[in-house]
Here is the input.
Amino acid sequence: MRYLVTGGAGFVGSQVVLALLDQGHEVAVLDNLSTGHQAAIPQSVLFYNVDLMDYQATKNVVSQGIWDGVLHFAALSLVGDSMREPFHYLRQNYLTGLNIVQACSEVGIKKFVFSSTAALFGGPERPDPISETAEIQPGSPYGESKFLIERILQWADSVCGLKSACLRYFNAAGADLAGRAGEDHRPETHLIPLTIDAALGRRPALKLFGTDYPTPDGSCVRDYIHVADLADAHIRALEQIETRSVAYNIGNGRGYSNLEIIQSVERVSGRQVPWEAAPRRQGDPAVLVADLTTLQRETGWTPKFGKLDQIVETAFRWREAHPNGYGD
Here is the structure.
């Protein structure tokens, strides 16, 4: 099969590119490299340096290949930044999503996989765990922008016949099992790489935001999914959308606390993690964990690398080997 991947130079997009290549598919990447890294794109992959805000350039790329499907990862993705720059996030993510969906619909693409988010479920009464039937109430402009694209895809299916899979991630983590790709955000905001960097002495003491939550150890609990498992879920989702559109919550199915992350990094690295308690961040819920029932029932998918130390170990190996990320 031939697939076009937008945002394929980013953390999750590059992992899915590798997974598709490993299965023998032909892949092309569309990315403007605003947050991604060209070094994350394998040399065998055709690369289009295009900004999705440019509709005509986007449509030209979509029109060039007989694509069996498009996977859309390109987006601004920092919740905190979206609270500071709400209109920038809403405009950028909505318009780039609209442009790629419109181009696919006009060219006649039949399959579309969308990188959505668990930030859709931002309401105060979140169930635990969170299923696809939970109330959608985004708690940030970032989450709202993703929901708007899900709505675009519903209309693209109803009017144009474009079948889609909206995959609502919880916390993607880890690195490629063979060490070919890893996490390199600038600035880095994710807990596991920040904790690893603190253990390696590359940053000051880690700040733990909140130690008085109603959880077993007082710190927040989050659902971390290994990127290899996440990539596998994307490929299985492609198989589900021959005749219908779907939406799945994707996580590990269990939660790990912030203190458990620190302890795992210490076990894996053999180093102590310097950390200090800090006040809670506004809007941080105590627990966020995915209900995997629908995804497992419909696709047969299950996480293969669900143990926390497995996730942390691959992330640590990649980060230790690449102190400057893709700058190495």
